[in-house]
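REQUEST FORM: STRUCTURE PREDICTION
Request ID: SP-0412
Submitted by: Lab K.M.
Chain count: 1
Length (residues): 366
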Amino acid sequence: MKKLILLILGAFLLQVSPQLYAERIKDLTSIQGIRKNQLVGYGLVVGLNGTGDGTAFTTQSLKSMIKKFGVTLPAGTTVNAKNSAAVIIHADLPAFAKPGQMIDITVSSMGDSKSLRGGSLLMSPLKGADGKTYAMAQGNLIVGGLAADGADGSKITINVPSVGRIPDGATVERAVMSPFARIGPIVFNLHEPDFTTVDRMVKAINNAIGPGTAISVDAATVKVRSPRDLTQKVSFVSMLENILIEPAEVAARVIVNSRTGTVVISRKVRVTPAAVSHGNLTVTITEDADVSQPGPLAQAGTTATVPQTNIQVTEENQRMFVFKPGVSLNDIVRAVNDVGAGPSDLVAILEALKSAGALKAQLIVI
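STATUS: Completed
RESULT:
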């Protein structure tokens, strides 16, 4: 009985093992035309505890706002705007967003306001790239930063107090027309273009739906024939998104962050035969003062200070190591660690190997 269970378990693992590294189409692609849209707007934050700004555009905005409520200020009247701040609002309008739905917004000070903590954003329109209003923003800000000043000029700032968020702070007023409802093929675009992945995706769709359903356009695009009926089209896309495919491995790459010394090496990196010697040369220069005096029987002479310079050169005892043909990632890291090289030394070694033509990978410095 125990052997039978093991055989069944082994057969099951053999069946699911190809799918252990597979990914859904929805995780590898996006549908052409279905995307978010950026919105931006200008507004006023009020109710600040003296941390607002006193810029001219904030004062002008306050005057224009209260004038709309029937309050006319005498000519030459100065408005104290220290409890108010002019802000820029930005948000992302998701695909298929409909009027009445809520979206999150980010509010950023555009003047010299010290903090937006405790402020409230007044009703502000959010516009798209075409200049049309797509949402209206208003609400109380959530600010993660904090700023405090002392009478002696000392101050403390935690995080960024001049930027805040308002969850569900804007109401969608206009929907963006989506090309999804149009009659025509569904176009999938890969996040990472790759000919092998596109070929596997086309074969997986044709095997699941039928021959000729999907065709490849280039290394990033796959066209799929879809039903004309919109309800069937939604179900069809849902089925396509959950088809599993095994994406191709990316090209061999070595990513180097020159600022932090971080090095990431992909699995397919290989090195041809090469000998590497890496060591640090340290030069130490010291200055000592020596006193020179005339001899005891000398008729003339004076005591003088003579500088003595000592130069010492020290070289670390780093051994040379040899890369054999086709060494892997583990061999590279182990060889570098054996000679005590740090991240910056590893970067220098990789750059030298690339210049010598021994590193079979893309060396990308960010």
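NOTES: The chain has three domains: 37-172, 183-245, 253-289+305-365.
Reviewed by: T.R.
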